[in-house]
Amino acid sequence: MLFLALMDTKRSESLPVTQRIRRLKPLITLAVLLLIVGGTGFLVVRQLRNFAARIVEDTLPGLVYSGQINAELSENFVRTMMVISSESADERDLYLKRIEDGSQKVNGSMVAYKKTIFDDEEERAFDRLVSAREKYREIRQQAFDLVGGGKRTEAARLFETEVLPAYAVQKEAGETLFDYNVRQGSERGRYIETLCSRTEWVVAAICIGIFIGGFFTPFVAIRLPPDVWK
Questions:
Q1: At what angle do helices 60-85 and 164-223 cross, to 10 degrees?
Q2: Cα dihedral 126/129/131/132 (nearest 10)
Q3: Does residue 2 surpass a pLDDT of 50?
Q4: pTM given for the model
Q5: Which helix or strand (DSSP H or E) is residue 81 part of?
Q6: CA 96, CA 108: separation in Å to the nearest integer?
Q7: CA 109, 111, 116 angle in degrees (round to 5)?
Q8: CATH code for the domain defined by 26-205
Q9: Per-residue pLDDT for 47 more than 80?
Q10: Which residue has the higher pLDDT, 47 or 113?
C-alpha cells in the first residue's frame, strides 16, 4: 500500500492540492503513527534517565555519606565514654585524639553530603543533624573540661544528665537522614520498575497492532471501493 501511494504521488503532480492530500493519506497516517510511537518512547526513556540520574547523583551518595556520618558519630560516642571512664591520662589523650580525627571525618562527610541535597525535606533533615551535633559537641566539651580539671565525678554526672540525652537527639537526627535516603531510593526504584513494566506492555501492544495492521491492510485495501483512495 505504501509503495502504491508513493507511485501515485509521482503520477499526480498535476492533480489539485486537495486530491493530492487525499492520495497521501496512507503516508500521513504512517507518519503520525511513527511520531506517536517515537515521541512516547522518547518521553519514557527521558523519564528513566532522569530518575536513574537522581539515584546516581542523590540517593546513592546520600546513603554512603549519611552511613559514614552515623558510623563515625557512634564510634566517637564510644570513645567519649572511654574518656569519661578512663583513669589514665595517656589513655584519655589517645581517645581525645581519635575523637578529633573522627570529627574531621564527619566534617568531610557532611561537606560532601551537602552537595547532594536537592530537596527541601532533605535539607531540613540535614540541618537538624547539624544543629543536634553542634549542641552535643558543646555539652561533650564541657564534660571533657571537667575530666581535664580532675573532676571526674562531675564529668560522669554531666555525661548521664546532658551528654547522653544530647547524643540520643543527634543519633535520631542522623538516622532520620539515613532513612530519608533509603525511602527515596526505594520510591525511585519502584517508579523505574513500574515504568519499565508498563512500557513492556505498551511496546508489545504496539508491535502486535503493527503486525495485525500490516497483515490485514492489503486485504482490506483490495475490498475498498476505488473512490476511497481518490
A1: 170
A2: 170
A3: no
A4: 0.68
A5: helix 60-85
A6: 19
A7: 90
A8: 1.20.120.1730
A9: no
A10: 113
